[in-house]
Design brief:
With 193 residues, the chain is α/β, with parallel strands linked by helices. It folds into two domains: 16-123; 148-192, no CATH class. It contains three helices and ten strands. The longest helix has 23 residues, at 152-174.
Length: 193
Amino acid sequence: MSTKVEPRGVIGAPSPAATARTDDIVIGLGVTSSGNFSTAGLICVDGVLKDADVQASALSISRGGEFQGKANVERAEVFGTLCGEVVATEQIVLRASAVVVGKISAPYIITHRGAAISGEVKSLERRPEVQVPPVLARNAASRSGLFRRPTTFSLLAIGLIGAALGGMALGRMASHDVPAPAPAVTAEIAQAH
C-alpha cells in the first residue's frame, strides 16, 4: 500500500506543486503501514512503518515504534527501532531506548547512554557558524541586561545581601519593639557589579 498526501484543490489557490504541505503524518500505535510519505511537517511513527521512503522536516520514532526504510529529513529523534537509512540535514537524536540497525548521517548526532547502534554512523559537514569578534561579543553580553549570566561576584553579593536581609527579618520577628540594624554592604561588594 502506498500512501501519498496530496493537497486539496481550492479555487484561486496556487497549484499543489507550488506549495509545500506542512501536514503532520502519524502512524498510530498498533498500525502497520508502508509506502512513500512526503510532507514539510512531522512524521511520527508510534506503530510500524515498513518499506518506507520518507521526505519530511522531522521524523520521530516513539518508544515501541518501528521504522524500516529510508528517510531524508532535517531532524530525527529516535526512541524506538530504526532499521534502514536516515539522512538528516541538521541533527539526529538517539534517546536511551533507541535501537538503530543501519546507517545514520547528520552534522550533529546526539546519542544518549543506553542507545544501541549496529551499523554506520556518519557525521556530515557542518554549516559554518557565524563568528562574532570577541570585542563585539563582550559588548553584546554587557548590554544584555537582566538576561546576562550572573558572575561569581554578583552571586556572592546577592547571597550576602539576602542573608543580611533574612537575618534582619528574623530579628524583627523575634522582637517587635527593637528595630534591627540596616545591613552593611561593603564597598567591595558594591563595586563587584
